Amino acid sequence: MNKSTLSMALVVALCGLKPALAAPVLLATGTLNGSGGDLSSATAGSLENGTAGNLLGGIGSGLAWAGGTTFIATPDRGPNATNWNAALDNTTSYLSRFQTLQLGLVKNGTGWTLTPTLSATTLMYSPTPLAYAAGATPALNDADHYYFSGRSDNFDPAQPSTNPNNARLDPEGVRVSKDGKSIFVSDEYGPYVYQIDRASGQRIRSYALPANLAVTHLSAQGDAEISGNSVGRVANKGMEGLAITPDGKTLVGIMQAPLEQDGAKNLRIVTIDIATGATHEYAYMLTSGSGVSEIVALNDHQFLVDERDGKGLGDGTKASVKQIFKIDLNGAQDVAALSGDLSAKAVAKSLVLDVVAVLGANGIAPAQIPAKIEGLAFGADVVDNGVLMHTLYVANDNDFVRATAGDNKFYVFGLSDADLSKVGATYSSQQFAADVPEPASIALVLAGLGMLTARVRRRA
After folding, report:
1. At a CB cut-off of 8 Å and minimum separation 6, what does 404 contact?
2. Domain count, the chain
3. Fewer Cβ atoms within 10 A, N terminus or C terminus of the chain?
4. Chain center to CA of 249
5. Over the stretch 294-304, which tens digit does the pLDDT of each residue have?
6. Could you report the per-residue pLDDT of 380-406, keeping only the tens digit for each?
7. CA-CA distance, 262 to 251, in Å (whole number)?
8. Which superkingdom does the taxonomy of this entry point to (predicted)?
């Protein structure tokens, strides 16, 4: 039993916590207003489409817990909803970045409140030169900083799409390393998986992904790229989700859509040994969603997968499919050498959380549920009505268009051990190198027992 599990078990024993009913609950919702832009003043100038280079949005594309109330969010490739150049899919020279957030979840009477605040904006760059299109080199570049950009034409046409020297980056998945000093980012253009220094934003490692994920005929226009390749990822539907196992040793990426060479509804999961870079591939079959947006670890072999449609707020329709499934890679067959219909090799899956149903039961109509529910991250455990809950933070990508998709929203669901046991799952908290204080809810429980001098701490 690790320190975190022991600490929480002590609280359970001392407080006589009640067994939970097996049904995930919505604990809180929060909104981050994007009207003031992000904290990168150096990018405040106008982009090619007239929008501000520090426009705040899209930050639910990827969400990662960093301990305590701190989370990391990635805002994909930037604002491209305004038409300016169809040959570039209207992408701009928005510099790739990650946002550091404080998601303060606080007990408020019989309920909970969530207050999101932005605490830092960090631009991502390579210390060595990158391939840019003519006229697309960032003005902030210098001899030691070559910034990644969302423009779809920033690539070397002589290399496959997984070439790490391409400047284009569409960061979708993000996780924090075990030592807390770096993050891992997956993207859709390559796909790529990069390790980024958390303090500076410098890329410190690039992982070589399997060649069967890459396309060889590159284009700045997605439709042209799709028509020009019979093998590899579909344009703008690369490695959408990324998980890290609780021990910090393995990354697990998932593609948003089937590869060109695979049957419809079959996606690829790729595991990456962080130390060696060794990879394995597994198959995931869609149930009713049009794609997958995220994957997050329950333990070293079980994961939650976010499967969704594209309907809801921002699409002008009503949300229908936003479902979170549990999968297990134990005993799964490696499909790296296979192609075609992978259905018979797909990992087993079980529904854990129907987001539309639970939000609907809490008065949130389908037309007000964001179309792009994309970010998943476990946070610190809390006690709710005498029940120990694992907090699952769910975020949306609003595509930088607040007028139609609203601000970035965060939903916090509580999953009990009883919820997980129904699908044969268990949960282990991600372990970081530094201790982080228990959330306020646990401290208050202990205070009520006169035990503040024996304050429980956990490895967040």
Report:
1. 313, 314, 316
2. 1
3. N
4. 18
5. 999 999 999 99
6. 999 999 999 999 999 999 999 999 999
7. 23
8. Bacteria
